[in-house]
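Mods, move this if it's the wrong board.
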Amino acid sequence: MRTLLFVLMTLVFVPARPCSCFGPDTFCGVLNPPFAQPEWWLPDAVVMVVPVLHEHYGMDVAVLQVLQGAVNADTVRVWGDNGALCRLYTGWAIGDTIILGLHHCDLAGNSIQNPEYPPDLERPEDYMISACGVYMLDYAGGMVVGRIDSSMEQEMTLTAFAETIGQCALVNTVPEEPGIDALVVRTCRNGIKLEWTGPGSPARLTLFDLQGRAVWDRGWVGGPVMIQDIPQGVYLVQVYLGTGRLVRRVATG
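Not the wrong board. Structure tokens:
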């Protein structure tokens, strides 16, 4: 866990170039039926997979088990973020076992392109992983690990997990979406400055790198904070609000 750095100094900031979205703060929370929440939250399939190949900003995964919904093959391509999309990064190690909530690919990467990648990589039969909610859980030692139906990290056997997500749509309610403009994000060459200007205060602030790793994480009450001395690049800023997660994309440098 990284140490919070409060910086009282004059810096020249430039506006961040983020995409913004808001979603539930648990895996269970994204499984509400469409009539109870925005339909785009609801994944088309919940699957246990193993990454077998990295391909540009996506990966091929072998499907070990389908827990909800259906997928169209035993090995499917899953697209993440190309630097301009509200998707998770797909930097999981080859051979890891993970639980994913997958959406059918919306082909957004073919129109919102990054010149670092070839054009038109995404296909209609592919899938994607949204960043607007909790759509990924770890699986290790026979246990599913992550924010399953609680804002605190949990561990469950696969059997208990399957039973839990089967009940999620029956018990969850839709969190109220905050004013996204309440999160002020500014960047400079050596850091990111954040401030919360909305009602109440957030509870936690996490910064994810291009590989989806939490490189900075701590409790936060919303006052001005500077995350300093990080490499230039693209990051996801995640603010936990108690009722949900606000996600912003930030490009530094």
